[in-house]
Design a protein that fits this description.
Chains B, C: Keywords: Oxidoreductase, Pyruvate, Thiamine pyrophosphate. Chains B, C: It is an enzyme of class 1 (oxidoreductase). The complex is a heterotetramer, with two copies of chain A (336 residues) and two copies of chain B (361 residues). Chain A folds into two domains: 2-187, Rossmann fold (3-Layer(aba) Sandwich); 199-325, Rossmann fold, CATH 3.40.50. Chain A has 13 helices and 14 strands. Chain A has helices spanning 5-19, 43-47, 59-71, 90-98, 100-103, 133-137, 150-162, 184-187, 214-228, 246-256, 271-283, 305-311, 315-325, and strands at 2-4, 23-27, 52-54, 75-79, 113-117, 143-145, 167-171, 179-181, 199-202, 207-211, 233-237, 240-242, 259-262, 292-294. In chain A, helix 1 packs parallel to helix 7 (150-162) and helix 9 packs across helix 13 (315-325). By secondary structure, chain B is α/β, with parallel strands linked by helices. Chain B has eleven helices and 13 strands. Chain B has helices at 28-53, 68-77, 91-96, 101-108, 142-155, 174-185, 205-208, 231-248, 275-285, 287-297, 303-326, and strands at 4-7, 13-15, 23-26, 83-86, 132-135, 162-167, 190-196, 199-200, 203-204, 223-227, 251-256, 347-349, 357-359. The chains are: A alpha/beta (336), B alpha/beta (361). Chains A and B meet through strand 14, helix 12 and helix 13 of A and loops of B. The structure holds thiamine diphosphate (2 copies) and magnesium ion (2 copies). One thiamine diphosphate (TPP) sits between chains C (89, 137-139, 166-170, 197, 199-201, 263) and D (28, 57, 59, 81, 85, 88).
Chain lengths: 336, 361, 361, 336
């Protein structure tokens, strides 16, 4: 069976709301408008305005209300229309949610999910295109999930909602409409995926490509092309940025001896840098070539289509980096 | 020249202030200018709608048609040394501040000739030399920013003011209340203009605000409720507000207005409001039609002349679009310019830092 | 038992609500309890001051002496199923909710036996089983959090309310206005308690707020101004507010109170206010002295008995401190516990991940 | 001459305010109270309430006002009482300040400085101890400075105030009272330090220690001890996190072949990870040993003195890591 990521998220929320009356959904336009990106379609009708709650445009306020409700034992799902707007509420995510269980020595747990689209969409400019995986992933107390496929979306969101800790759940707008095959098992309402475990999307032996979210798609396409040129790439879909599955990454690199990281976010202090560090820490001697990093350009996102394309990783970039690790260089005409 | 005195559609309603007179002075020239300016804005937005549908404009695009009287009436009351800052629904504000159709369409289509060289996009227009400070995508953020402009004006003893525009949805944002408190403490010449088009995206005002009387939401700060579909009322209110702000500090203007389009191009705009409501406003309150009637009833011009103005405008718009379409995309070297004013000659990386690198200027 | 009816020091002042009666019903037992509870809090804070000075307490430490009537009067009006949340000035709220001196001093000294096992510190006390949700260090953050507790109470049809406490300085925070709007839209049983001690750190209320009438700052939300140095007035107001909130949604209580100490231990508390002002409040409005007078004038007890209560309290405090001092520091293994409820057995690193590693439970 | 970091900051602000009437200082308690940490002592008296402005406790509001004033051409210095509270205002730092020059193609420059103490103080618990160097350092459009000594503080703050771009200036509360020698040159009111250049605090040949802020102190102490044991450590004080002085780091590593990174912040996606990545990218073949990372523990900051100590890098940690890079291990009794 095929299912879009949108359906996967929608059914995950639906099933968890029907399983647990403590779960509710709150955010801007989640109810009557059916979600700015229609993720919550039908839920207001089904669960009513007591559990599907439209808020004013006041992220700090409703994120704080969500965290307070979680302190009291409810299980809020807080939707940010996009994660760019989570900056208004980030103090509650970090200081009110992530740290409370620790500061209270376990008295105040915070079973909450913050979710919404993260990173670049298409043509939405600098203020609406930022990826927050590295930022949230830096913070102890949070769990940070980054689904790619429909199975990821369903399994990880269900796990997130059931999890007793605060989870930042980063979706991707450009994947919402994408269809993926889903297994019977994944369609079961009891389905969930383990938090903190990466998935090997494609096995390979020459180079490991570690990536997440939409870049898994690009990396798989790159691997396909590389295969034709005789390079066998292993593609790891992280699924979870925090906890980071260091053992899966290191196991793969110990096999392939080469590593390319791919992310859409800004490079400095990014996910790629951490993956590199984790491999240097644990598998330095296995590396046959420098780790290659492909990331968003180190600039605010431009609007113009040609610049936007240059500002984001492309399949070619991944291929080129992978070849470099195998010491086959294919320089690109200098563009700037 | 002749001076006309026209009564506003409805009385102003004041909060902690004595409202200005309903009788607004104007001239035939001004009224005809209002007609032309508003018609031009309307046409530009309708054309943008088409360009979006033919995929020449990408991403978010928020149209202003319906609200033109606010932009135009405000300009009539102030100078270009006064500042304006607004949210993402910014094309017409830009035009009102002296921006050109060509730069506007170029920006919308992401061309080098755009007002932000194609780097900003629909939501990020600016015209600093005429006091327009954007074009902001984060709901509510422009309000403290606008108070900051007013802070600078007062600091520099400019005797000018700032109009910070925001929607009814934005009116619940906490940073509004923070900024307003400081503006009031420090008597900043800040005018908060709430363009109440009655919906924040799909949410009706009363579902987002316990008290949707936005002109009163400053509590201890004065406010004025204005018919935002009546360009003369807007002008009168803005003149009043400017005077007030220079003397006494901040004031809120609630402009009762309406957007004809959906929130952005992805919103049909008809699920959360009835078609009757929309057509009712068009028929009874439309800002351009109001001015057309005024012109005709005062015999300032003829129906035929107005039609020919509208035709001329269509030509201008079509021409600007044609030229914008011909304009090149930004040069790839633009990728790395303007990240900083002063880049220290440092290297900056593209997606693959081993291939695409720039040196910051 | 005898019922006493006592008049509050001053009338309540209402905003958009009919204030409750000045005549407060109480009993001798309750009044004596007030005396004991407030005296215990005072003593605890004075002792904390000494412990800080002898470097047994580290970091920030904000004392509550002067404001005891708020914590005690509030508890008298509510149950432990009602929730309280406050800022960093939290020791006495914790005590009021049934916390022990021993756990309090242990936490202050960073011991395993502290109410947060030494991990929280002065600003982060909690007692969830009695409805106390902390202990928050970010000014204003506890207000939406408190509205969230109220949200949960309403969601779960608990028929209970939440008291969210904040200072006059916090009262200007935008998130207050955001949360209040939602609380009002959704009729949440949230009581916003503004403890107006007239200074936010070194800033007098009127320098931080254009309108320091905090009970009115909810604008469209009702409010009540209360003498926060009169424990009976506080009790009356909280009872009134709880009833109001269950029926009609949020309400603001402004408690007119005073902190005797500086803002925190690094603030002598005397640069931005006069010593006369402080001693004036101590002499004329002190909450404990007011109750002492009440007890003596109504002959509910004798001067000697009150002294002996105070002596007993001193003993309790000294004893708790002695025991807390004996208590061990947290075990090093605690470093990695409670980061998550569910750690999936994942490894977590110390400063040197190759040496100090824990497995998350 | 000796000068405390506090005096260095105070004189830098004072001199720049006296040199340029467009410079003003705004924040909580900066005026009548003379600064929560007394950095602005005397400035209200000297410049009056029009230029030394006490604000209400409304970070989003006054940071936004500061950015707006900078749009108009003023040069605001915005003090956060600590950078933890910058979370309330972070949207203005990122979306209103960092991105405006780019989005406007150079029309709207933002000459503003956000400054205040960053990272751990002593005993202030989880909500008041976070280091934001990595977060802000990830964002194009910002410059991020991290002074260590009094000369750093003076020279970098003066550079920041004069700079036409938004600068995040991260101070350290525990260094405020520390005295350092200052040169004649550094005392001159024209003094400033270049943004984006690291400083070699101590030359060495066996191992490079790259660090910033208070950890420079610890690293220098570690180097001293290492020297006694025959290991010559080069200590690099980054001074600037963004731009990151990749060439200084790489030049040093190419000399020593060994690298230890030391930071107080959380490890994941931290400054250490980026430094490691930058060396892997540029000097992979020079590395003789895995890069070693010393960082804050991956937990919210505990209050208790013994736990707090374990949660922060100590001199011993640095020594041990440096020795590991030289293949001399000295394992520590497992503590947890
Ligand atoms: C902080 C933030 N939250 C959410 C959004 C998404 N968003 C963009 S516009 C909008 C509605 C704003 O409505 P209103 O303020 O009434 O202005 P209008 O669009 O009617 O002009 C929303 C929710 C945003 N851009 N920023
Ligand atoms: C968001 C934020 N900004 C600044 C601070 C620093 N700070 C701590 S308490 C305080 C004063 C608060 O005053 P008030 O709200 O009146 O409470 P009081 O201390 O008088 O009880 C300040 C500025 C903080 N903790 N959080
Ligand atoms: Mg609106
Ligand atoms: Mg106070």
């Amino acid at each position: 069976k095929q299912m879009t990521v949108r359906e996967a998220l929608n059914t995950a929320i639906d099933e968890e709301m029907s399983a647990d009356p403590k779960v509710f959904l709150m955010g801007e336009e989640v109810g009557e408008y059916q979600g700015a990106y229609k993720i919550s379609k039908g839920l207001l009708d089904k669960y009513g305005p007591g559990r599907v709650i439209d808020t004013p445009i006041t992220e700090a306020g409703f994120a704080g209300i969500g965290v307070g409700a979680a302190y009291h034992g409810l299980k809020p799902i807080i939707e940010f229309m996009t994660f760019n707007f989570s900056l208004q509420a980030i103090d509650h995510i970090i200081n009110s949610a992530a740290k409370s269980n620790y500061m209270s020595a376990g008295q105040i747990s915070v079973p909450i999910v913050f979710r919404g689209p993260n990173g670049a969409a298409a043509g939405v400019g600098a203020q609406h295109s930022q990826c927050f995986a590295a930022w949230y992933g830096a913070c102890p107390g949070l769990k940070v999930l980054v689904p790619y496929s429909s199975e990821d979306a369903r399994g990880l969101l269900k796990a997130a909602i059931r999890d007793p800790d605060p989870v930042v759940f980063l979706e991707n707008e450009l994947l919402y409409g994408q269809s993926f095959p889903v297994s019977e098992e994944a369609l079961d309402s009891s389905f969930s995926l383990p938090i903190g475990k990466a998935k090997i999307e494609r096995e390979g032996k020459d180079v490991t490509i570690v990536t997440y979210a939409r870049m898994v798609d690009y990396s798989l396409q790159a691997a396909e092309i590389l295969a034709k040129e005789g390079i066998s790439a292993e593609v790891i879909n992280l699924r979870s940025i925090r906890p980071l599955d260091r053992s899966a990454i290191n196991a793969s690199v110990r096999k392939t001896s080469r590593l390319v990281t791919v992310e859409e976010g800004f490079p400095q202090h990014g996910v790629g840098a951490e993956i590199c560090m984790s491999v240097i820490e644990e598998s330095f001697d296995s590396l046959d070539a420098p780790v290659e990093r492909i990331a968003g350009a180190d600039i605010p996102m431009p609007y113009a289509a040609n610049l936007e394309r240059m500002a984001l990783p492309q399949i070619d970039d991944i291929i080129r980096a992978a070849k470099r690790t195998c010491y086959r260089s294919a320089p690109k005409a200098a563009a700037a | 020249t002749t001076v006309l005195t026209i009564e506003t559609s409805v009385p102003f309603i004041g909060h902690r202030c004595e409202p200005p007179s309903r009788n607004v002075e104007t001239t035939p020239k001004e009224v005809l200018g209002f007609f032309r300016d508003m018609a031009l804005m309307r046409r530009m937005e309708i054309a943008s709608d088409s360009l979006y549908k033919s995929k020449l404009i990408r991403g978010f695009c928020h149209l202003y048609d319906g609200q033109e009287a606010v932009a135009v009436g405000m300009e009539a009351a102030i100078t270009r040394r006064d500042c304006i800052i607004t949210a993402y629904r910014d094309h017409c504000i830009y035009l009102g501040r002296g921006g050109t159709l060509f730069e506007c369409f170029s920006e919308l289509m992401g061309r080098q000739s755009g007002c932000s060289k194609g780097k900003g996009g629909s939501m990020h227009f600016y015209k600093k030399e005429n006091g327009f400070y954007g074009g902001h995508g984060i709901v509510g953020a422009q309000i403290p920013l606008g108070c900051g402009l007013a802070f600078a004006q007062k600091y520099s003893k400019d005797e000018t003011v700032t109009f910070a525009m925001y929607g009814d949805g934005a009116a619940n944002q906490g940073q509004l209340f923070e900024a307003l408190n400081m503006a009031a403490l420090w008597d900043l010449p800040a005018i908060l203009v709430c363009e109440n088009n009655h919906y924040g995206m799909g949410t009706a005002e009363w579902r987002a605000a316990k008290s949707p009387a936005y002109y009163k939401r400053g509590d201890y700060v004065p406010g004025l409720k204005v018919d935002g579909m009546d360009v003369l009322a807007v002008k009168q209110a803005c003149r009043f507000a400017k005077e007030h702000a220079l003397k006494n500090g901040p004031i809120i203007l609630e402009m009762d207005t309406y957007r004809y389009h959906g929130h952005s191009m992805s919103d049909p705009g008809s699920t959360y409001r009835t078609r009757d409501e929309i057509s009712g406003v068009r028929q009874e309150r439309d800002a351009i039609e109001r001015v057309r009637k005024l012109i005709l009833s005062h015999e300032l011009s003829t129906e035929a002349e107005l039609k020919s103005i509208e035709k001329e405008i269509r030509g201008q718009v079509d021409d600007a679009i044609a030229r914008a379409k011909e304009s090149p995309m930004p040069d790839p070297s633009e990728l790395f310019t303007n990240v900083y004013v002063k880049g220290f000659g440092i290297e900056v990386a593209g997606a693959d830092r081993k291939e695409v690198r720039g040196v910051l200027p």
